[in-house]
């Protein structure tokens, strides 16, 4: 691994590749400015500790775990938990579409007059998605980004965010339904 060999180019590539995910983890625990400080501190730790990385987990998971541990140390408080009752988590606009376990009774059927790729290319849907992702509560955004965008396994996301599997399901469920409502509104009105 080039990082272990202290290769500057590999380090710069790792910073640009992994920092967004590390920030998502840190923002789960901390306000945005403190999260950025913690991530910067973590990179200093990584430079010193990369020789101890044994490869038992992926590099991304290892980095995210360092961030999570640093944030927990900074907070010095108990772990966050969210309610696992799906009935409390449903948006009124979507309540009739889900059953009590949070699964779709009536699955979404999104239809665009333009292709999703075209909408993303012209920036309209992409800008709207960015806006709504930013508006999600930190816990939901972090869970969604780690699971969907960074494609961590559920077990890894639970370990990184220090939440139970049922709490992760609730966080993902809440985030997905808010994003679904945004896409549905965009589809119907063309507005964010």
Structure, described:
- The structure is a single chain.
- This protein is mostly helical.
- It is built from nine helices and no strands.
- α1 (8-29) crosses α7 (138-149).
- The longest helix is centred in the C-terminal third of the chain and has 25 residues, at 165-189.
- The radius of gyration is 19 Å and the shape is globular.
- The N and C termini lie far apart (44 Å).
- Mean pLDDT is 78; it is low at 77-87.
Give a quick set of tags describing it:
192 residues; mainly alpha; 65% helix; globular
How would you concisely characterize the structure shown here?
The protein is mainly alpha-helical. It has 9 helices and no strands. Helix 1 crosses helix 2, helix 1 crosses helix 7 and helix 7 crosses helix 9.
């Amino acid at each position: 691994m080039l990082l272990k060999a202290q290769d500057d180019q590999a380090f710069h590539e790792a910073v640009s590749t992994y920092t967004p995910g590390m920030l998502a983890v840190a923002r789960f625990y901390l306000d945005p400015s403190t999260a950025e400080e913690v991530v910067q501190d973590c990179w200093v730790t990584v430079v010193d500790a990369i020789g101890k990385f044994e490869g038992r987990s992926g590099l991304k998971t290892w980095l995210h775990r360092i961030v999570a541990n640093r944030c927990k140390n900074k907070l010095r408080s108990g772990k966050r938990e969210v309610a696992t009752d799906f009935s409390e988590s449903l948006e009124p606009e979507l309540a009739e579409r889900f059953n009590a376990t949070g699964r779709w009774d009536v699955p979404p059927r999104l239809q665009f007059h333009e292709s999703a790729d075209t909408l993303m290319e012209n920036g309209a849907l992409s800008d709207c998605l960015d806006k709504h992702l930013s508006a999600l509560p930190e816990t939901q955004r972090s869970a969604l980004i780690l699971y969907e965008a960074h494609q961590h396994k559920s077990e890894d996301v639970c370990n990184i965010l220090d939440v139970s599997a049922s709490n992760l399901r609730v966080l993902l469920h809440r985030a997905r339904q808010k994003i679904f409502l945004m896409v549905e509104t965009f589809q119907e009105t063309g507005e964010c």
